Every structure is written in C-alpha cells, then in structure tokens.
Amino acid sequence: MVKLEVGLLGYLNFATSIVRLINRSGPWLFIGRALRDRVTLRES
C-alpha cells in the first residue's frame, strides 16, 4: 500500500513538471509546429 502511494506521488510530481515545461515553452512549441507545418507543405 505504501509503495502505491509513493508511486502516485512520483507520478503527480512527474505530471506537474511536464505541465510546467509545457507552460514555459508553450508558445515556442506552437511556433515550432507552425514552422514545421509550413516547411512540410513547401516540400510536398
């Protein structure tokens, strides 16, 4: 039971760190995706 709780805490920590990363680089991810889409459109 304790192992399960520790695993859940670790998972929550992992999820929050991912969300923080996405929030920090959100606009850049969006810009990068748009640029990549434009490049792939030009190639095809």
Q: How many helical elements?
A: 1
Task: Return residue spans where pLDDT drops below 50 for at least 5 consecutive residues.
Answer: none
The amount of beta strand, in percent, is under 5%
Shape: elongated
What is the structural class?
A: mainly alpha
CA gyration radius, whole angstroms: 18 Å
Sheet with the most strands? none
Order of helices and strands: H
How much is the average pLDDT? 85
Q: Helicity level, as a percent range?
A: over 70%
- CA(first)-CA(last) distance: 54 Å
Q: What's the number of extended β-strand segments?
A: 0
What does the model show?
- 95% of the residues lie in helices and 0% in strands.
- It has one helix at residues 2-43.
- The radius of gyration is 18 Å and the shape is elongated.
- The mean pLDDT is 85.
Quick recap of the structure?
With 44 residues, the protein is mostly helical. The chain is built from one helix and no strands. Helices cover 95% and strands 0% of the residues.
Give a topology summary.
Blueprint: H1 2-43
List keywords for this structure.
44 residues; mainly alpha
